[in-house]
Amino acid sequence: xxxxxxxxxxxxxxxxxxxxxxxxxxxxxxxxxxxxxxxxxxxxxxxxxxxxxxxxxxxxxxxxxxxxxxxxxxxxxxxxxxxxxxxxxxxxxxxxxxxxxxxxxxxxxxxxxxxxxxxxxxxxxxxxxxxxxxxxxxxxxxxxxxxxxxxxxxxxxxxxxxxxxxxxxxxxxxxxxxxxxxxxxxxxxx
Length: 190
Known about the structure:
Radius of gyration: 16 Å
Number of strands: 7
Structural class: alpha/beta
Shape: globular
Order of helices and strands: EHEEEHEHEHEH
CATH superfamily: P-loop containing nucleotide triphosphate hydrolases
Low-confidence stretches: none
Distance between the termini: 28 Å
CATH class: Alpha Beta
Strand content: 25-35%
Strand order of the largest sheet: 2-3-4-1-5-6-7
CATH topology: Rossmann fold
């Protein structure tokens, strides 16, 4: 579609290892998604701790990006969804992908919230607006959102929602929160 027919918006979907980024993009995308998943090897030992809750059965990981596309109702805005690794060792790749993004949707897991800080630090260092979506796993503890906001040390205006990355409407709600937040910040700066 020519640019005059619609506006293209880049959105990052990021978070720590095994939090559901690939799943969220697969769930939201209207096109077949691009994935760069590879089998995890012994090279990950000492780098990625697979003994953590939720990672014990993980056998593949995204080594570059995930990509999907979502056209919003009215066909005027098309969201390009880029899933990025959250580890600092991917910083050069992350910076290239983040360039020109409207904002970032950070997925978090209540079983290992501390893993989210590195990702949020990267986003804040680059001045990107973001929202946090706590991905609900079957065995995840259920916490009050205000307690989670405190534990994640989020600013009062940073959106915080729960979602199930496997459910389109749930993931879409998180994306809407991010988009509304990013647009309001852009309007305030203008």
